[in-house]
Amino acid sequence: MPIVYPHKTAMPCRDPEERRRSWDEVAEGYTVERAIAEARRCLSCQDPVCEQGCPVNVPIRDFVRHVALGDFAGAAAAIRRRNLLPAICGRVCPVEHQCELRCVLAPRQDPVGIGRLERFVADWERKNGNGETAAGEVWRDQKIAIVGSGPAGLTVASDLAQLGYPVTIFEALHAFGGVLRYGIPQYRLPKEIVDEDVAHLVALGVEFVRDVIIGKTVTIDQLFGELGYSAVFVGTGAGSPVFMNIPGENLKGIYSANEFLTRVNLMHAYSFPEYDTPIRRPNRAAVIGAGDTAMDAARCSIRLGAGEAHIVYRRSEREKGARTEDYERAREEGVIFDWLTLPKRFLGDENGWVRGIECIRTELGEPDESGRRRPVPVPGSEFTMEADVVVLALGTNPNPLVPQATYDLEVDSHGCIVADPQTGATSREGVFAGGDIVTGAATVILAMGAGRRAAVAIHEYLQQRTAEKAASR
Fold first, then answer.
1. Strand (E) or helix (H) holding 218
2. H/E element holding 390?
3. CB 390 within 8 A of CB 286
4. 200, 231, 334, 421: least buried by Cβ within 10 Å?
5. pLDDT tens, position by position, 239-269
6. Which CATH architecture has domain 144-239+398-472?
7. 369-414 confidence digits (pLDDT tens)
């Protein structure tokens, strides 16, 4: 029986004051010694229930055991049996709500730092050159088109390429990675990691095509028809922003989180003056919302020069949606949290720029349809908050273009493509879908899990079609 220490092994991070003006990665990762110490906290349970919390079924017990023994190559091989993007997942997965939530050490002690160990193994593999992907061998003749290069699309492409299919990923933007590229800041997910994972797929034989808007440049019907694809996977994500619909929302200096983070990440506003991306650099920023995206927007605002960055949220700290780790790092960096605060209207100056927010205090009433207590305005508690940049981080809706441009593709009342949760099959034969376009805004690892299931279903679908053709001859 291993000696189990009650707390996770600390992961070194850069000093909060230093990182307020730096886009370098915040977390420095485990050393070899820290990784082995943390892995030795694992009880190697006979029934590893932590694995039930992983959407892509990473063999957690096995890879952690390899780390505890100092066999990092073995740990990397175990992870990559199920996870294409370990360096990414080790950084951005909400492990506290998934694998680590199931750890048998919790709640009496800290769960094993599964996410931190996954990151360590992936980074060790990158550093030691053991993550090269062997060239893929395309030997099947049924072409597969993937719409969107986010985590769901990358996972489908990897799995099907390894089965010998010719796979093409169509991306609307000029760079690949989807939300990994435009949504997650450099200090949390360095973009060279995304580039390396794309390069792994290129080595497998996957073709990447940029600047193609499926539903506009090319339709799904054309993919099946003149372009000759046998199956299509739609992983276009949830990129349509949600607004508050209150007075003043069209003032200059008010951004949706999608636009703000896309300018910062995809358009390299973080790399000024090398890139002179148009974006207003705040003196006092206010971010509406309290999820992971809101934390990203507030922390980016600080790095863009804000003297103050506020999180404005109509509920309390307890109801926030952000990962605990990112919330704590935001606090360390000086983000100010205005809980139980509801914006009523935005105030502008004579030139049409935002200058403040009229707010009202709230208190929590009965639970609403989300299961969280409903915020109720407190009469007479109105006040004004100064802000010269406002970011609305209120969630996103599915990208509507592909469903609108595709005949007989069923969507639900929220605009999500209706797809079988186990296979990704849609109402249109040969069209599969997964990730945020099906579930609404969710997590990287859930999108990957959907991609993995869809890849299996696409293979079975094409095998069945091949068998039917052979039988009809």
1. none
2. strand 389-392
3. yes
4. 421
5. 899 999 999 999 999 999 999 999 999 988 8
6. 3-Layer(bba) Sandwich (3.50)
7. 878 889 999 999 999 999 999 999 999 999 899 999 999 999 999 9
